[in-house]
Automatic annotation (TrEMBL), chain A:
Family classification: Belongs to the TRAP transporter large permease family.
Positions of the TRAP C4-dicarboxylate transport system permease DctM subunit domain: 6-422
Subunit structure: The complex comprises the extracytoplasmic solute receptor protein and the two transmembrane proteins.
Keywords from the UniProt entry: Cell inner membrane, Cell membrane, Membrane, Transmembrane, Transmembrane helix, Transport
Pfam families per UniProt: DctM
Functional description taken from the UniProt entry: Part of the tripartite ATP-independent periplasmic (TRAP) transport system.
NCBIfam families in the record: dctM
Spans traversing the lipid bilayer: 6-27, 39-62, 93-122, 134-155, 167-189, 219-241, 247-265, 277-295, 307-333, 364-386, 398-426
Name of the molecule in the record: TRAP transporter large permease protein
TrEMBL record, chain C:
Lineage of producing organism: Bacteria, Pseudomonadati, Pseudomonadota, Gammaproteobacteria, Oceanospirillales
Membrane topology summary: Multi-pass membrane protein
Residue spans crossing the bilayer: 30-52, 64-90, 102-122, 142-162
Domain of life the protein comes from: Bacteria
Self-association and partners: The complex comprises the extracytoplasmic solute receptor protein and the two transmembrane proteins.
Name this protein carries in UniProt: TRAP transporter small permease protein
Keywords of this entry: Cell inner membrane, Cell membrane, Membrane, Transmembrane, Transmembrane helix, Transport
One cellular component (GO) term of this entry: plasma membrane
Tripartite ATP-independent periplasmic transporters DctQ component domain boundaries: 39-167
UniProt-annotated location(s): Cell inner membrane
Amino acid sequence: MTFGIFILFGLLLIGIPIGIAFPLLVIANAETWNIDWAVLPSTTFGAVSSFPLLAIPLFILAGEVMNRGGLIKQLIDVCDRLLGWLRAPMGHVMIAASAMMGAITGSSVATVAAIGGAVGPVMMRRGYPPGYTAALNAASGMLGVLIPPSIPLILYGSIVGVSITQLFLAAILPGILMVIAFMTVHFFMTRRVLASGHEHAHSGNGAKSDDAAKSLPSILFRSAPALMLPVVVLGGIYSGVFTPTEAAAVATMYALFVMLLGRTGRFGDLSDIFSRAALSSAAILVVIAFTSVFNRALVLEQIPQSIAAFAPMVTDSVIVFLLVINVALLLIGMLMETNAATLLMGPLLAPAAASYGIDPVHLGIILVVNIELGLLTPPMAANLFVAARTNDVALIALLRYIGWFIFAALIVVACITFIPALPLWYRYF
Amino acid sequence: ASAETMELRLAHYAAIDSPADQAAQEFARLVEERTDGRIVITLFPNGQLGGVEANARDLARGALDLALLTPGSLAGLDPLLDIHYLPFIATDYEQVDAIFYNPDGVIQKTIRETLAKHDIETLGLYELEFRAVTNSRHPIETPDDLEGLKLRVPSSAAIKGFFEAAGAQTVVMPFPELFTALQQGTVDGQDNGAALTYESQLFETQEYMTTLKHVYAFGTFNASAKLWSELSEEDKQIMLETAQEVGERQIQKNREINDQYLAKLAQAGLEITHPNEQALAAFFEIGQQVWDELTPVYGEARINALREEVARARSN
Amino acid sequence: MEISPALDRCLNINARPFKFERKVYCVEKWICITALAVMLLAISSNVLVRYFNLPFPNFSEWGVVAMAPLTFIGMAMCSYTGTHIVIDILKSAKSHRLRLVARFLIGIASIIFATVYLYYGWNFFYDTLLSGEKLIAMGTPVAIPLFFLPAGMVLVIFHAVLELWCTVIDLAPAIQEK
Ligand code: NA
Ligand code: NA
C-alpha cells in the first residue's frame, strides 16, 4: 500500500486529474489488492447514486443562482458594512460571508465556489496576493459544513443513530470558534501579505463606495432577500417541511424566484447559470465517483478498520484515546473523500468511543471537523482544488499560505476535543 | 496457511455486533475451523462495501464472494423477491416456522430460485423480525387510526399497497433519511420492527407502537455463483451445513431477545398497543385486497399454493 | 469562464475533427444542463407532493438517476474544457516542452483508464439490461443511468485522442527547434 501511495503522488504531480489518478492506481494494483476489475464500475456507480449526495450539485447550483441574482452581493454588503471598520476588512468579509453561506448550504465545496467567485476578485483588486486569497477562500469554506445545515453531520447522524438536531446545535459554537480562529490568522497575516499592511483604496469596486455611506438599517433592508434565505432553509428543515437534502432544491428555487422577480437576472440567463453549475458539479462528482474505488481498496485492505481498532487498544486514558482518534481521522481525511470517510469511520469509532464514555454527539463533531480538515490537506483536498480553480491560481501559490489556517483549525479541533462543553453547550439550558 | 488457502470476503449491511453480524462472525469462524483453515473469511459489516442492492449486484457479477442479503429490499432486481412482504402470511412463530422455514415451501423455493436465476446461491436463512407500526400522533388500534397518517414505507409494492389501502399517506424514503424525517415531522411514522426501531434510535422520535405483525422479514446467507462453481463438493457441504446451523441458532437467539427490545421501547416511553382480535380481522381483510391486487405480479399458481400453505398453517 | 489550453486549441485549429469535437461538447453540455434541471424539479416537486399530499409518485428517484449523466458525461465535459480537478504543479512550469510531455502522458493515462472502465462498464450496463433490474419507487430501469457510464468513457477517449493529436502537432516543432 505504501508503495502505491508513492506512485499515486507521482501520477498526481504530473497533473493527471485526481478522478483518473486514483482509479488508475487501483487498476494497476488490482492483482496485489485482490480486486476484480469488474468491481470498478459498480463501486463508481454506487458512489454517486446516492440521495444525500444530490445536495452537492443542488447547493452548487443554488450558489450560482445566488451569485447571478445578486444575493451573494447582498450578503457581502452586510458583512462589509458590519466589518468595514476593521483593518484589512475584505479578508474578514470573506470569512463572515462564508459563515453566512454556511447557514444556507450544507456543503463546503459549494461555499468555496459561491463566496470565492464573488469576494475573490474584490480581494485581489485590493492588493491581496491571489494565493492568499485562494487559501483564505478554501479555509473559510469549512464553515459551509461547520455552520448547520451540514451534509456530513446528516450522514453521521443517520448511520450512527444520533439526533441530527442535536448535532446541528452542537456544531454552532465550534463553527463560531473557527470563524474567530480564521479572523485571527487573517489579522496577523495581513501585515505580511499586503505590501503596506493595508488594502488599496476601494478602487474598481464601484458599488462598494456607495454602500459604505449607507446606514445599517437601509443595507439590512435591501439585503433582506439574502438574509431571509437561512431562515427559510433552517426553518423548513426544523419544521419538517423538507429534509436537509431537499433544502438544497428549495434554496435554489427561492434564489431563482428572487432573481426573476427582482429582475436581477433574466430567463435567458438560466442556461448559462445551469451550465456553469453543471461544470463545477461534474468536476467534484467525478472525484467522488472515481476515488471511491480507492476508498474500497483501503477498506478491503482493512486500513481504516485497523486504525479504528488500534485507537482503543493503545490506552485506557480518554485523553490519549481522543488524541489517537484525532490523528487517525486526520490521516483518513487526507486520503479519503469527506462523505465516504464519514460513513465509514462513524460506525467504526462510535462503539469504542461509547466505551470511554464519550457522548456520540461529541464524537460526531470531532469526527466531522477532523475529516473536514481533510478538505485542506492534499492529496484529497477538495476545498483547495476548488478554491484554486475559482480564483484562477496555481495550487502551489495557495499551498504557501494554507498551513497557518490548518494550524489555527487544529487549535480549534483541540478545544472541541478536550472541552466537551463546547459542542455540548445546549445541554446546559 | 498454504498456497491453497482461499481468502473470501463476506459483506453485509447490518450494524457491528447486531444479531445478523454475530451470525456472520460465527459463520466465518466455523467455516475456517471446519475446513482446517482452507477457507478464511473476512467480514465487511455495516455497509462498508455498499448497501444490500450493491452487494447483490456484486455477487451476481462475481465481484464479491459472500453476503447477507435481505430479499425484501431486492424487488428491483426481481419483483418476485419481496413475495414474503404480502400482508399476514404468518402471525406467530409457529406459522412462521411452518411457512418460511420449510425448505419445500413456496417462499423459500421462490427466493432460492429467483436469486439463483441472478447467479446468487442461497446457503441459508436467518431472522430479522415481525414488522410493527410506530408513529408520533396517536395510538393505532384499528385501521381507521391509520387514516391520513404520513407513513414512511420501504420500497415494496405489498407494504406500500397495504398501508394505502388502510388510508395512510405513504412516503417511500431511503432508510438513511428516515431518522431525520421522523424527527422533523416530515413523516409521522414508519413500520420497522422492535429491534430495528430500538437499535437505529428511531424510538427517540416516536410515541406509539402497534405490534401489528403485518409482515415477517428474514435474511439470507448468499454466495456468488462464481465462487460456488470453484468450491469442492466437500467445502460446499461445509458451507451449507454451517449456514444452516448458524441460521437456526440465530433464529432462536433472536426470538429470545425480541421481547427484551419491546420492553426497552416501553421503558423509553413508547406506548405499546397489541391490537385485539376484532381489529386484527379488519387489518387482515385489508391485507387480502393486496393479495388480490398483486396476484399478477407473483403469478396465480404461486399465490394459490401460498394461500394453501397459509390456510394449512392456520388450521394447525 | 476561464478558457483552458484545451478549449483554446480547439478554437484555433479548424480541422474537421476539432469542429466536430466542439459540437460533441455542446451536446454534452446540454445533457448535463438537463440532468441538473431534472434534479432540481424532481426534488422540489417531491417536497410539494408530500406536503400537500398530491396524488403523484415519488419523483426523487429521477434526481438520483440524473446523478449518472451529470457525473459521467460531465467527466467528458471536464476533459474537453480542462476543468478537471488536478494538482497543477506543471501548469506553472517554465518549459513548454515539459508541459507538452505532461499533456501527452495525461492523454495516454486517460485513454488507459477510460478503456478499462469502458469495457467493464459496458458489461455492467449490459448485464443490468438483461436482468431488467429496476429502481423501486418509479420502476426506472437501472440500465438507464448505467448507460451513461460507458457512454461517458467513449467521450473521454474521444477527447483524449484529439488532445494527443494536438500535443503531437505541437510537440514535433518543439523538438525540431533544438
Ligand atoms: Na452549513
Ligand atoms: Na485531504
